[in-house]
Design the sequence.
């Protein structure tokens, strides 16, 4: 028996529409991270939720970045990126790094960070991973990056989560 609220959307051309796709994935909670790297004019970064661990041996991480992203261009040129997992109190930072900026380094103005293993690491991040780009793969309107993890660090705290098109924290 099908529950009325779980009735499938009708697909007219054999695939989900962009809106149907967004609506379905809005129910999958994900951690909020900021990807960081260096560009020709300083640090670059962007908010990302399509980030995960990929392999333990060797230690690999995965991130998906929009093909149009300035940060993707910086990552490709620099060959390394950082994954900074945000604390619950860092929602304003997530919002700042999600908005367009005049230049990629504008987002870093006043944001404390250190250079570790050739990438900017946000000082107050809940956890961070410094990665060397291993491979890139096409993924529709995104590029899938895999990174060999060169260094990590973490602090105690509560993660910031993106769920149902909004920020939240674990209950």
Sequence:
């Amino acid at each position: 028996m099908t529950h009325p609220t779980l009735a499938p959307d009708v697909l007219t051309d054999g695939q989900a529409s962009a809106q149907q796709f967004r609506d379905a994935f809005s129910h999958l909670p994900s951690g909020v991270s900021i990807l960081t790297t260096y560009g020709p004019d300083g640090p670059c970064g962007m908010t990302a939720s399509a980030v995960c661990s990929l392999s333990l041996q060797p230690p690999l991480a995965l991130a998906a970045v929009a093909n149009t992203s300035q940060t993707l261009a910086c990552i490709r040129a620099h060959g390394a990126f950082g994954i900074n997992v945000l604390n619950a109190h860092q929602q304003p930072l997530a919002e700042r790094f999600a908005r367009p900026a005049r230049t990629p380094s504008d987002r870093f103005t006043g944001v404390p960070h250190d250079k570790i293993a050739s990438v900017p690491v946000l000082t107050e991040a809940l956890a961070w991973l410094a990665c060397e780009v291993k491979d890139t793969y096409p993924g529709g309107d995104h590029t899938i990056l895999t990174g060999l993890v060169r260094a990590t660090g973490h602090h105690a705290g509560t993660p910031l989560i993106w769920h149902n098109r909004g920020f939240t924290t674990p209950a």
Notes: The chain has three helices and twelve strands. The radius of gyration is 17 Å.
